[in-house]
């Protein structure tokens, strides 16, 4: 056990599983670096965000390699390899790039098992960076997990801290279904105590990060950190039950419903676009299954229905914040 | 040209005849309204799937297309279970959940018909990657039509396979049309071979109604792939005997063309003439196969019609291994 | 005014607008037919579903033409043409094909205006077939409108009858924003009185197809027809207020909220996958804005979280039906 | 080789110098932390955008890439408004909502930098389609990198443009790398010209650090397109002087390479030497431009730093024309 960054937690998860299972391979664009470069040094970079440093040296280019900029081929290669016995990890550098390869994910990998009558499995993980906060603007800052969550056949993971990142990624690699693993780009430097050995965190089990009685706050990914801050800030005045579902598919609806039955109030915090979203899904679940428990109308804290702006000032307004979450909490208390 | 053994020749004929009979019967049954869904028949292209797949074992993988019945049969899928699947019955290859456009049998290395044009190529890249990773001598084949070659996924797969030197064969079937559109319009390049070769791999074109031509070219490509020589493309030129899908009135086509095709471009006729002429097989041997296959398909259709559909609870199973 | 099919209504809308505005062009795969065919007869087919018969003869190949099977190029061509002064209609034969061209739709066309600070417009329509009912299985039967609805910058239209199809498509073509126009494949033969001349139905205005007092039923696209049947069947016993939003983005939340405030009960019927869906969105809107009005928990009638099965028997169970809608209505009445 | 007028030569030099100065200053300011977001500089490739865009009018359109500042400048975008946009200020070309990776000016025919690799090609197809439809003599240019040529969208666009005989030029910039990956690895083909030509169009390769070579090749391609001769590809070979983005430590690269490039592959140096040597321009003329440009960029940066950011209410405007 030692303090590790989110980045390092990711690397360790991949390393453990590649050590454990020779069928695990890993490929994507620039995850190794130096293929074809003038320094003639494969392994030169270890990923745009440094999440894969050292893996090439350990596992060699049969098991970890770079690819051309051809995301459909990458995702299809992962799906085809998974169908035929490997357990690939494929990197889609930014979630925003799903548009050039979505078919291989949602019509192929996600549907094989069903279309083939259960006579196939597709154990693969697609890692990708998500989220706003770096001023990377409309095509490099999106959340997009509602789109993956919408698709039957996919599992969707949103870690909110280094400990969860490691345990959930190990579970993702061991899982027999296609898993979308989404890493918030602003969190890579987050530090936390993380065990040195491998451990798996099961999917569909929410983490209650703050226990409380007055308001249920369901928050996703990076938003869990903000929700926790609000809980700490309001402690003594208003008591928040902060729920981090950790996976949006499967979603731990039970924990959410139980909490709302206890608190009677709900705030949902999500960085994704607001319409047909994970935030809407949570509110809908609660309305269907715990309507009578709701003392006041639930409140959604999400960005507006707009693309992500480039200007840092606008971006800061765009993403939910401690302030907007606190306001929502006060509103459901008052309402 | 290599001499082929009687066993090989008989197998080739049986496969082509089985595809012919299977598809001809599906055409009849579809018109009679007994087969659900959309269906695209492989009639006229039998020699291609056969000539390619006869080089493959169950450990080799193929990815297929919306026009996938021929690939299934050539790859060794159980014909009765295929028919059950076309009828969407519980005991079909995919429990009736896939149907004609998603028929698959992973145990036979048949990674599925595919209703998305061009989607099979990246999947075959993946299967070839499995072979490379595990160090097996296996290869993968990506079947695809002339129309599909204009899909970005196919181009990406070609470059990708060359870069990684994967044991992969692009088996392009130029049947002259993508739906209602002729290749003379949809292809900007001089031809498919030149364009594929420009991706950095060997490519050749053969008569897709001549089993022997396909068999030999595919043999070269498969051998190269198994030997670590990387990917190649084999373009087989044939023609679609039917509409794009069953029910297509083919107003865009000169229907006299099809009569000509059936007369002069019938792979079975050509095969029969040649093997009888050169004395490798006797007419009676072929006739016997014809009769057996006819019976097999008839039995398959009867069984499929009588078989039970999936149970209501099957609706929600097989989405995940666990959830 | 005369009885016209849904198919014919679509053709008329396109014809009117192509007559009216020379900047309207139309392209896609096999919408004309016969390009390169041995019959040497361009205009031979008029589309896979016959929605474009006669248009080639009238407008010629500069304004309506077939393309290679290259959906990214098609969608990008439409977006680029729209940016530079045309008003293209592009056909994506089946909604299910969005996976091969989604980037051009969601990252390009949808975002230009915002990314370029309002100094651009992208007036284009993407027509596509949707829905189950033809036994076309998992890759040719999907609804997928929640995905488009999720994306800021897109407008999403789901006509439920021939009259609306014509008026909404005319509006879509005249609209200055990118519009996703989704035609349910089972409805092409539906007949209805449709005016001969052009008319536009504004977006974001729901149609109340049955007025009632006991239960609000919000239904999308083809599901409106089923909801109407249930309303007629229960008439005299339970009175349904059936709402057809007609566009999911913008969504007429006002009409929905007013109705629920009147009835106190809500059933949402949608053919799309259930998670992060239009159905969840409607329930979420009502829970946020009319919680107190709800006498009983809202009920969602959607397919299960599975791909679309091939077998006709399973497909019939998969899609919401008059029976499952009726059951939901009885449930909210009882609950 | 055509003689170029003084006006043309001076314009070319000014554009290249403006790009050089703009990007060099952005590098400095980025390191100082005053520029927000990600940014990718065009240093080393100035002759390419310039050589191509000097054949274009405002009515012609270009689509660009993540490395788009050079294209903007060459296409005539206002440099001060560009700098304001890089600083994400309210009066920037895109009101500060686009930033470096989405900078655009439709009125100048600049259809936007683009943060999705390969996404610009289909958009240029669209602009060329507009020209064809309206019967104007306009052309479109799709700029794109060597890495981008492996993206399915680019291949699709090439075939599409040939099929429709569109007035389109694929201006491929081979700077040797896609991010951390060299072209000797990512390209399976013999070279980019062969592969592009196989799509059915004229293609040629030129030295992208030689303005004259680019200018002439692009001139042929543009003239062909304007005359109804359809699309073509011009591959310009240059090299990236900086990391992929600012802040990239370039561990994958031999950094001595860059020194060599600056010495021997500097398009400005080469241009200056040549025009002075052959007597077409005088050193003082060029020096004067250098000074003016330096002043312009300095003023642009100062203005940009001082300018107000977008207002909070700008967050939700400009999503739709109406909603
Ligand atoms: C991505 C995608 N685009 C379009 C279609 C519709 N479609 C189905 S088959 C087909 C034609 C395919 O032509 P080709 O590849 O030549 O195969 P063939 O039908 O001739 O066997 C088209 C356009 C599809 N299924 N998927
Ligand atoms: C679809 C997509 N894939 C990957 C990326 C990440 N990415 C940004 S630039 C780049 C390299 C592009 O290389 P090239 O086309 O040669 O352009 P250059 O950077 O050399 O100008 C990559 C992989 C992206 N932005 N979009
Ligand atoms: Mg074909
Ligand atoms: Mg490059």
Give structural notes.
The complex is a heterotetramer, with two copies of chain A (335 residues) and two copies of chain B (323 residues). Chain A is α/β, with parallel strands linked by helices. Chain A folds into two domains: 2-194, Rossmann fold, CATH 3.40.50.970; 207-334, Rossmann fold (3-Layer(aba) Sandwich), CATH 3.40.50.920. Chain A contains twelve helices and 14 strands. Chain A has helices spanning 6-20, 55-59, 71-83, 102-109, 112-115, 145-150, 162-174, 223-234, 253-263, 278-290, 312-318, 322-334, and strands at residues 2-5, 26-28, 64-66, 89-94, 125-130, 155-157, 179-184, 191-194, 207-210, 215-219, 240-244, 247-249, 266-269, 299-301. In chain A, strand 10, helix 8 (223-234) and strand 11 form a beta-alpha-beta unit. Chain A is globular and about 65 Å long. The mean pLDDT of chain A is 97. With 323 residues, chain B is an alpha/beta fold. Chain B has a single domain, classed as Rossmann fold. Chain B has twelve helices and seven strands. Chain B has helices spanning 6-32, 46-53, 69-74, 79-86, 120-134, 152-163, 183-186, 192-197, 211-226, 256-264, 267-277, 283-306, and strands at 61-63, 140-145, 168-174, 177-178, 181-182, 203-207, 232-237. Chain B starts with 5 loop residues before the first helix and ends in a 17-residue tail after the last helix. The relative contact order of chain B is 0.16. Chains A and C meet through helix 4, helix 6 and helix 10 of A and helix 4, helix 6 and helix 10 of C. The complex binds thiamine diphosphate (TPP) (2 copies) and magnesium ion (2 copies). One thiamine diphosphate (TPP) sits between chains B (65-67, 115-117, 145-148, 175, 177-179, 240, 244) and C (29, 69, 71, 93, 97, 100).
